[in-house]
Every structure is written in C-alpha cells, then in structure tokens.
C-alpha cells in the first residue's frame, strides 16, 4: 500500500512532544510491514540544518499563496523517504515549530499549515510531479486538518485517516482567516470548518476524513463525552462508527535499559538491583540526600494543566513531609515552572527541579526513579508511563485515556493474578494523589511485591510493530483489501 503520512513534527528531525515520537516511529514500522510510506513535513530551519548535505530538490510547485519546493531526504537511522515542504517565508525561522520566542503562536500559523495542506493535496493527487500517488493519506492533529477538507473537494482521491493526538489543540482562527486563505465557501459552515464563529482546522480532519483514530481506546470513548470532548463531542458522536483507538508504541531501541547509553548503570529485568546505582548517581547529581530509603518519585513532561501539575503543586507541601524525594524535569507555563522552582529552593535535599528539555536526563530519571508520577487531567496516550514500565520505574497514574489502557493497578486481585504493574487512581484530587503515592511507598517495603510489579511492567510489549499491525489492518479495511501490504 502507498501511504502519505503527514505531520508537523517527527523525531529525530524535530520534536516538541509525543506527536514527534509517533511520526518518527510509526512510518518506519509501517515500512517494515512492507508498505511504501512517505513522510511529509515542513522544512523548518532546524530540520534543514539536521539533514544538510543529504538532501535533493524533487519538485517545485506554484501554490496559490506562493512557490514551494519539495525536498527529499531520509529519516536519520532509517531508509524512510521524507519529503520536506520548503517555503522559507513560512518555515525558515528559528526555534519552536508553532510558537515564537515569547511562547505565542506564530501569527501566520494558519497560512503556514494551509501551505503544508495544499502541498499535501498536490502530492496526493499526483500533481506535484513526483510520479507517485498514495492509496491512503494519514494526517495527524490540527496542523494537517485542512488536508482531508481540501481533498474532499477532489474526485478520485485517496482514502484518508485523521489521527487525534490531542483534541485540546484545535487550530482555531478568526473567520476572516477563512477568506484570507481563499478556502472554498462550501467549507464555511457548521457542517464544515466553522466552530462557534471561528475557523477550526481540526474539524477538517474530524468531518472529512474517511476514518478517525485516536491514540488509545479509552480516549476514543472519552472524547465523545462533554467532559473530554472540548466542545467537539457532538461531531465525534456523529462519527462514532468511523472512530477507533489504537494505542501508540514506543521506540524500544532508544528506550532500552539494557543498552541505554545515558544510564550510568545498565540493567534488565534480572538485574534490577543495579538500578540502585542509578538512583544514587541521580540523587548526587541533583543535590538530594544519597540514600535508598526514600521513595524517589520522577516526573518528566510539559508543565501544563493537562498533566495535572497544578494538583501536584498543591500536594507537594504535604508530600515533602513524607519519606519521598522528587526529581521533576519539564517546561511549559511560567507560573508552574516558577512555583516548582520556588518549592525546590526551600527543600533542596528532597526535591530537584530542572526546567528545560533534556533527553539524557529524561532517560536517567526513568532508569533511577522508584516511582513515576503522571496525574494527568486527560491523556490521549502518554508515552512516559510506557517508558517507565519498560525501565522498572513503577508508574502512579490517573486512570484516564492511554494511562488507563497501559497501567494495571496493584489491587489484591491483579497482584495475585500477576498482572499488576503500577498504581492508578480516578479522582483528580490532592487526596487521590496522596493516597496513590502512599500505596506505592508502602508497597516498596515488600521486596517481592515490588520486584513483581517491576518485572510485569518490563515484560509488556509496547513495540511499534504491534501498533503498526493495527494501523495496517485498518488501512486494508478502508481500501477494501484483504492483504495488508
Ligand atoms: P505529550 O505529547 O502530551 O507532551 P507524551 O507522554 O506523549 O506527552 O510525550 C512526551 C514526550 O516528550 C516523551 O518522549 C517525553 O519523554 C518527552 N519530553 C517531554 N518533556 C520533556 C523534557 N522536558 N525533557 C525531555 N523530554 C521530554
Ligand atoms: C499528544 C498527547 C499524548 C500522546 C501524544 C502522541 O501530545 O498529549 O498523550 O501520547 O500526543 O500521540
């Protein structure tokens, strides 16, 4: 099957969050299954710097809003062909793909991602001069939402899947933008791209794609309810027959405690005692007391409301009276960054906070922490809890979205059945976080129970091969083929 996979970020070329991980892993995993996959990305300045010397121009297009070149390279470390939409006015700028240096959305985001969409449509309809026509176009999140909408206007178009990685980000713009972009009037209705008087990019995917997926089965159900639907629950309910959840995988080579170059001491499920050395090193490096007794709690991620960081901040004054230590790595909203730093300054030997983005430290936290905390308000999939399971850092998570689908609570029944691998809670409250961390801390006293939780987590299969097989079966179904490849 020929698949055009379109995303606004892909690791290792450019990444701001889990979408980057997925777009860097799923296309090569689909290729391994025998599909002919091309990844289409914007040619951001950082991407061009990373692929310098291994790039060639494949096509030049005259779009209605300016000229665009399509450059070709491969995803580093793979043979996956990558096409880059080279339009310097839109993408040749420093830093984050979506935000300016002050953290505000780039003022021309609508134009930039409309340009990505028009290029994708030209390629999908084989009008770009690439002599390649996909059977299926797989788009991801609001930045690619105009693609299904624009393709719906074409006769004889490829089938389309739109994947929701996070419904909270919708790509909303004032209605004037609709005219500025020169979008067909037909799309400007509540049955099209209009959402409460605004232009919604994500609706393009939700309304016009042949099938919608999201990144966990639980989130697929949750987003059809007012609590999680971000105002789009009605649209999603109307499409419920075409909506399904496929759990993300993780890159099991990059995230392998037995070979991880970032860890001071590597280990596997049979040498878990070696993690103690990593814990000691991390404690020393972070200025915490070096002792095995306290339960070391790790957190890595964006410091935004989604991740429940406000609840953690409220719980921390009490948690810091307990025999716990915290290492928190993240960046995000300034108010959370500042509050965490202020608290850490008052509790230097119990709590360390690193504001910023640091791959190496993220790995060292997974390889050292006893417990990994994710009290997310909502979590479409979440990758860190899967890294934690693989690294024997027992996850303590709120049972929502992908967290509910990947972590099995250590109830007596699950523990006896040998399926427990973490601790889950449901209410998003300080009390629930305290209770779950208390359960985890107390469970550490029983070495056999703790090792059981760690080993059960480490034995799970979170490889991309599993997810890719599910996508492949879905592609085949949409194309009415029995053979996947
Ligand atoms: P989301 O996409 O909502 O941010 P995910 O759990 O799906 O959440 O993915 C986040 C990804 O970004 C993971 O690979 C995680 O390790 C990484 N990450 C997030 N923040 C940081 C950080 N400050 N330093 C290093 N890695 C980070
Ligand atoms: C989003 C979600 C996260 C998910 C990731 C990749 O950013 O917040 O839960 O894991 O996309 O699908």
Quick recap:
This protein is α/β, with parallel strands linked by helices. It contains 19 helices and 18 strands. It is globular and about 65 Å long.
Mind sketching the topology for me?
Blueprint: E1 2-6, H1 18-32, E2 36-42, H2 45-50, E3 56-63, E4 66-74, E5 81-86, H3 88-91, H4 109-124, E6 136-140, H5 146-151, E7 159-164, E8 172-174, H6 176-180, E9 194-195, E10 198-200, H7 201-208, E11 211-214, H8 217-222, H9 233-238, E12 243-245, H10 275-285, E13 295-303, H11 309-319, E14 324-332, H12 334-346, E15 351-355, H13 359-366, E16 371-374, H14 384-391, E17 394-398, H15 401-406, H16 412-417, E18 423-425, H17 430-443, H18 447-458, H19 464-478
Parallel strand pairs: 1-2, 1-6, 2-5, 6-7, 7-11, 11-12, 13-14, 13-16, 14-15, 16-17, 17-18
Antiparallel strand pairs: 3-4, 4-5, 8-10, 9-10
Alpha-D-glucopyranose (GLC) is lined by residues 17-19, 22, 165-166, 215, 248, 379-383, 402.
Description:
The protein is of the alpha/beta class and 485 residues long. The chain has two domains: 263 residues, Glycogen Phosphorylase B (Rossmann fold), CATH 3.40.50.2000; 189 residues, Glycogen Phosphorylase B (Rossmann fold). Helix content is 36%, strand content 20%. A nine-stranded mixed β-sheet has the order 3-4-5-2-1-6-7-11-12, with helices on both faces. A six-stranded parallel β-sheet has the order 15-14-13-16-17-18, with helices on both faces. It has a three-stranded antiparallel β-sheet with strand order 8-10-9. Helix 11 crosses helix 17 and helix 14 crosses helix 18. Bound molecules: adenosine-5'-diphosphate and alpha-D-glucopyranose. Adenosine-5'-diphosphate binds next to helix 1, strand 13, strand 14 and helix 13.
